[in-house]
Amino acid sequence: MDHRPIGVFDSGVGGLTVARELFRRLPQESVLYVGDTARVPYGPRGAEIIHRFALELAEFLLARNVKALVIACNTVSATAADAIRLRSPVPVYDVVAPTVRAAVQATSTGVIGVIGTVSTVQSGIYETLAAQLQPGVRVLVQPCPLFVPIAEENLARHAVARLMADEYLGVFAGSGLDTLILGCTHYPLLRSVIGEAVDAVVGHPVRLVDSAAPTIAALEAGLTAADARSSGPARHRFFVTDASYKFMQVAQTILDRDVSTEVAPLRLSAGGVGWG
Ligand code: DGL
User: Fold this and answer.
1) Can 144 be counted among the known catalytic residues?
2) Is the shortest distance between the CB of 75 and ligand 1 below 6 Å?
3) Is domain 97-209 given the CATH code 3.30.390.50 in the classification?
4) pLDDT, tens digit, 9 for 90 and up, residues 85-127
5) Catalytic residue chosen out of the listed positions 32, 102, 114, 184
6) What angle do CA 131, 74, 266 make, to 5 degrees?
7) Dihedral of the CA atoms 123, 184, 240, 42 (nearest 10)?
8) Which fold has domain 6-94+212-275?
């Protein structure tokens, strides 16, 4: 039994799609969530900056005595997971490996699409992991950078979302893919528009695989194996580096509840992050 909280972090609100699954599947667990809303998006940035930001957030959570870290961001998982693991005294769960495993199991045609941020796509991690798990599988990747600001601005139902989905996903025409990885934790917010656009492009239903369920299944297995589950009661805190009202709006959409009393500011300083 371990009653310490679980640290979950992302560049912004997207990681809440992973936290939502954690709340659903492990309701006795307390969560400390960090959304770096002042510096989102991470996706267009270089690896060195992403490393720095990610380590700051991880260290903030580790200093609060978490029992595990969940990197609820594909961009950070793809570029900095190893660096975080090297520094973390507690287990670190990323959103990439469990999702690739789920997609490889799901595909019948052996053709998997991956959409993500520029940085995630450039990392090549999906192709590498898929080839290790199932040699011969084809992985087609496509960056969709504007999906992150569309999600952060709560515009998933606006026509701009469909316009960009048609633009980005047109690349999969004639590819034979039957499985599409939502390789960014913001993208489940655009799930229906992405699903409609990709089905229309390839001409048959495509299975969408997002990171939340496989990642939280891995976390649950890890906590259980280590006898580190909590019996509750759960208490959650959400730390944001900027504009908490915007975060609260999108959080309400994702979590279907008001989190305003649980949100706290996290001040960015020259040396990293600190209490606000
Ligand atoms: N949720 C992050 C991810 O999964 C968004 C990346 C960004 O900030 O650009 O990659």
Assistant:
1) no
2) yes
3) no
4) 999 999 999 999 999 999 999 999 999 999 999 999 999 999 9
5) 184
6) 160
7) 30
8) Rossmann fold (3.40.50)
